[in-house]
Structure formats: structure tokens, C-alpha cells
Amino acid sequence: MSKGTHRRDVIGRLAAGAALACLPGMAGAQARKRPFGYAVVGLGSYATRQIMPNFKNCDHARLVALVSGTPEKLDRYGAEYNIPKTHRYSYANFERIRDNPDIDAVYIILPNSMHAEYTIRAARAGKHVMCEKPMAVSAAECEAMIAACKRAGTKLMIGYRSRFEPYNQLAIELARGAHVGRTRLITAEHGFNAQPNQWRLDRRMSGGGSLMDIGIYSLNAARYLTGEEPIEVSAVEATDRSDPRFRTVEDRISFLLRFPSGIEANCVSSYSSGHNGYRVVSADGWIDLEPATSYEGQTMRIRKDGVTMPRVLPAPRRNQFAAQLDHLPECVRAGKEPIVSGEEGLADLRVIEAIYRSARERRHVSLSA
Ligand code: NAD
């Protein structure tokens, strides 16, 4: 049996088990009584530097439990965030979260290849799931995750924080509302210089190179700025295979997305050059955001009626991290789907697979609805 087949079997068995594991609405009923409790799974860089420090800025969410394979991290962050020993878990005893009524949801901040397994195990334990981007390493895994959460009656949200960032929200409103005229073209560029010796450069852990990690922001922005799904992609990859960083994953991949309305998005994803921005272009004007999807510092300029002006928004009461963390409890309480549900993560993975196919086979790839 191939590694891939074995992996699919494991994910399939976990997904089937999730159906029997909890009653629909159980986690929702728990959540209504008190602040919504998250268990953070994986105490790496993004979890400890961005997410955990931002619970203090939330209206509804609080950090109540930690999951890690490293006892020293559990001790250190447990002490820092006042998490009792009863609320600290290893990957081996992760299933015990089921018996902890303080935990409403898990936030999975692990390497990409572990997202599906931990989402399904969490659903099986009756918990809602916030899962980092990319949702998983294949569309098939995304489908298994969605099915598992559906059967368990738990919500699934993907950590697309830019959807909670005010400049990106304004860009969506202006682009879809044709503020500078009907959108003709979007350019979106995301990249950074990847440091060697990390899981991101190991395809088994990451599922791919720059596109899985940072280029997904270009793709996701093109989709949220248009509100449409691409119908065709064409991609070109440029990777120096003699660079030890790129033995198993791609460096740069440039891709063109065609949307049903005729809009085209010209996108860059890179692990060897620094970019973070997008521009929505009409016949006579544009909306520019650079940086666009950074943790802070978004800068917007708009060209309309022959005049270019900066657009400055007041600082939000809740930053994008806190607003994202609060969105899941808001949805649980209102009985709504998150604006960045599992379906949103799946839509990106479907396009990512088409982009890789296009680059590999050197041809346009059509995406059916
Ligand atoms: P990281 O390497 O800093 O953290 C990963 C954590 O997973 C570490 O604590 C590590 O110990 C743990 N882990 C468990 N099993 C592991 C294994 N077998 N191999 C390697 N690590 C293992 O990575 P990160 O930057 O925190 O990224 C984690 C996830 O968060 C990724 O999916 C990434 O795409 C996502 N992320 C999102 C954003 C964002 O802005 N939304 C930013 C950074 C990272």
C-alpha cells in the first residue's frame, strides 16, 4: 500500500468515526453559557507569537487549554497563560478534550499535513474547529474534514485572518461595488525569502512550496475581491532545484486566473523574493493595498477620476486576530456558517491543485463549477 493510500484510509476511518462521536449542537449548547473556550493545538511560532497573545483582545473567546508534544512548552505557556495542568494535553491523549466542558473549540496551528487528522479527531471529540490555512494538503482531505464536522454537528472555520482586517474588508466592498469602475484585472503578489531547514520545505509536511504557504494569499485575495470562482488557470513554475531549500517544493509559481465575469487575476507566489500586495484595476482607476495581508501596516491608495489619494481608516477596536477568534463563537451562537468555512478552504485547495497541474503539464486547466 502506498503512503498516500494509507493516509487516505486513516483520514477516512477518522472521518467515519466522527459521525458517532457526538450529538449535533452539543458544543453549541456548552458555548452559550460562558466565554467560548479554545484549546490551541501546536505551540509553534504563529500560535505563541500572534494567536495566544490576542485572546486578551477578544470579546467572546478565551484560551482555556493547550495541546503540545513538548512538555516544556506546556509548562512554560501553561504558566504564562494560567492554564491549569488538567487543561494541558499531549498529542497522544488529545482525545481527552472530549471530557473537558471548558473546551468549545480547538485551534489547529500545526504543519499543514496534520490539519486533516486533528480536525477530524477534534470533530469526533465533539469540538468546533478553527484550522489554519492552507486547510489541508489536498482537496480530498478538505472534503473529509468538512464531512467529519458536518456529521458531528460542529462548525469548521479556516484561519483566513485578512477577511477580518478592515482594509481588506474595504477593498472587497470597493472592488465588488465598482468604486473605481468595473474590475478588469487584479494583480496579487505574495512572497518571502524562505529560511532553510524547516517543515515548510518538506513536501510531506507542507503539501507544496510557496503556493501552499504564502501564494495562497494571492489566490484567496483574487477570489474574495471578485466574489467569483475561477473557471480556468494557467501557471508557470520557476524553481532552482540546485538550491537545497527547493529539493521537494517549488520556489516561485506565477498563475493567471480567469473568472466568469471576464476579470483576470495575475498572481505571484514566491519563496525567494519579498512581496505583499494586490491591486484591483479598472479601465480608468485602481485600488492598491500594499502591504495587503501582513499582520499590520496595511496601506491603501486609490486612483479615481485621475486623482491618486491615500485612504486611511481608524484603528479597529479589535485587530484581525481577535476579530477572527471571536467570529467562530459569534457563528456558533447565531447558528450561522463562518464567512471562511471549510468550503472556503476547499475552494482554494481545488484551485491550488489546478495551478500545480497547469504548471506540471504546461497547459491551461479548466475548473468546472
Ligand atoms: P511552526 O513550525 O512555528 O509551528 C508548528 C508547530 O507544530 C510546532 O510547535 C511544532 O512543534 C509542532 N509540530 C507537531 N508535530 C510536528 C511535526 N511532526 N513536525 C513539525 N512540527 C510539528 O509553524 P507555524 O509558522 O506556527 O505554522 C503552523 C501553521 O500555521 C501552518 O499551517 C501555517 O500555514 C499556519 N500559519 C498561518 C499564519 C497566518 O497568518 N494565518 C501565519 C503563520 C503560520
Automatic annotation (TrEMBL):
It comes from the Bacteria. It is an enzyme of class 1 (oxidoreductase). Keywords: Oxidoreductase. Its EC number is 1.1.99.28. InterPro entries: Gfo/Idh/MocA-like_OxRdtase_C (IPR004104), Gfo/Idh/MocA-like_OxRdtase_N (IPR000683), Gfo/Idh/MocA_oxidrdct_glycsds (IPR050463), Glc-Fru_OxRdtase_bac (IPR008354), NAD(P)-bd_dom_sf (IPR036291), TAT_signal (IPR006311). The keyword Oxidoreductase applies. Residues 36-160 form the Gfo/Idh/MocA-like oxidoreductase N-terminal domain. One of its GO terms (molecular function) is nucleotide binding. Residues 194-367 form the Gfo/Idh/MocA-like oxidoreductase C-terminal domain. PANTHER family: BCDNA.GH03377. This is Glucose--fructose oxidoreductase. The gene is gfo.
